[in-house]
TrEMBL record:
Keywords: Calcium, Lyase, Metal-binding, Signal. This is Pectate lyase. Gene3D superfamilies: Single-stranded right-handed beta-helix, Pectin lyase-like. Residues 1-20 form the signal peptide.
């Protein structure tokens, strides 16, 4: 494929995306990366077994290829737990527990959670795979403070957490969040919140993140849509690690993603985060992500513009950018992908290991590398095999919440 036709395809895709965008409060389906139709996924699944169907609907996205070809996904939901890749690949969520069906979206009680509510589900001590029995818009009164070994699985219904405090993953492990639209999140706190059946505590004022990961590990956030929160859409700080953020659609927000507590917090030197197959859409300004210390693999994402910068950081993070598509805005001041944040300027950041490997730069976008070029310098910031950047224009995966219909391929 020529550069011109490739560029045209991406621009057409972007135009198609803008023209089909739903109003903010009604977003539920995934957002197509490409206007190219994958006809193989329209095969008659009724005349094919799951195994043969699986062999015929490969997209090149290893996460989706693991489960989306199965028309019986609803009966095999927990297969998803074995589909994670990257640094968060060991996150099993509630795979080894029972299903919990959320039936009540209206009665959030942070101190004495009511059975049938999402809050009651996420605080339990045992592993749980949490699903829903109808479309829901959940307005939380305080942060949704989760317990370990939980999966929130929104597939099959339109599930929104909005216009209130949102999700907190603090001092726990093994969390999967899939298929939820999180938006309009605001600070809360100075309130008593239960985080386990036998434990509650007074919470301070929260930041207003969409999903806040604080000293959490083995976390996987997949196929969510996130927008318009008070602080970050997804923030991971205070020694959090082993995280994969994949297949999400993020749009209409300023500070998108913070990874690392502050420049002096050395525990984040062990942080490892994979950011893959995400679609960074319209109206984003900065922090896609902003990194401190640690190791960050940013691979096979699509960026459709940034108001300030796309990828930034301080305190010598290792950034391995591979196979991404960066489409700069027309504004001449926003062409640079990267922002090295250092009081000492280039005398300091020139030694930070930041590389662009196989990225596609369009409409004048450019990446400022630094540090060493040899692959060994990025070993701890490598978590999966990068596909070529042209992959995202030759297939049609989707990012964000999917429109999964029971009895059909999702």
């Amino acid at each position: 494929m020529s550069f011109f036709s490739l560029f045209s395809l991406i621009i057409l895709s972007h135009a198609h995306l803008a023209s089909t965008m739903r109003p903010l409060t009604q977003i539920s389906e995934g957002t197509k990366w490409s206007s190219v139709t994958n006809s193989r996924r329209q095969l008659d699944t009724e005349s094919s077994s799951s195994s043969s169907s699986s062999s015929l609907c490969r997209t090149g996205n290893p996460i989706d290829d693991c489960w989306r070809c199965d028309p019986n996904w609803e009966a095999n939901r927990k297969v998803l737990a074995d589909c994670a890749i990257g640094f968060g690949r060991n996150a099993i969520g509630g795979r080894d527990g029972e299903f919990y069906i959320v039936t009540d979206s209206d009665n959030d009680d942070p101190f004495n959670p009511i059975p049938g509510t999402l809050r009651h589900a996420v605080i339990q001590d045992e592993p749980l795979w949490i699903i829903f029995d109808h479309d829901m818009v959940i307005h939380l009164k305080e942060e949704l403070v989760m317990n370990s070994y939980k999966t929130i699985d929104g597939r099959g219904y339109k599930i929104e957490i909005s216009n209130g405090p949102c999700i907190t993953i603090q001092n726990i492990s093994n969390i999967i969040i899939h298929g939820v639209y999180v938006h309009g999140c605001v600070p809360a706190g100075n309130a008593v919140v239960r985080d386990k059946p036998q434990h509650y505590e007074m919470r301070g004022i929260s930041d207003g993140d969409g999903i806040s990961i604080f000293a959490g590990r083995d976390v996987w956030i997949d196929h969510c849509s996130l927008s318009n929160c008070h602080d970050g859409l997804i923030d991971a700080i205070y020694g959090s690690t082993d995280i994969t953020i994949s297949n999400n659609y993020m749009f209409k927000h300023n500070e998108v993603m913070l990874l690392g507590h502050n420049d002096d917090f050395l525990a984040d030197e062990n942080m490892q985060v994979t950011i893959t197959f995400n679609y960074f859409g319209e109206g984003l300004v900065q922090r896609m992500p902003r990194c401190r210390h640690g190791y960050f693999h940013i691979v096979n994402n699509v960026y459709t513009g940034w108001g300030m910068y796309a990828i930034g950081g301080s305190a010598s993070p290792t950034i391995n950018s591979q196979g991404n598509v960066f489409i700069a805005l027309d504004d001449k001041s926003t062409k640079e992908v990267t922002k090295h944040e250092s009081p000492q300027g280039s005398a300091e950041w020139k030694n930070w290991n930041w590389r662009s490997d196989g990225d596609m730069m369009l409409n004048g976008a450019f990446f400022t590398p630094s540090g060493q070029e040899n692959p060994g310098s990025y070993a701890k910031a490598s978590s999966m095999v990068a596909r070529t950047a042209t992959l995202v224009t030759s297939i049609s995966p989707s990012a964000g919440v999917l429109d999964c219909q029971i009895g059909q391929q999702c």
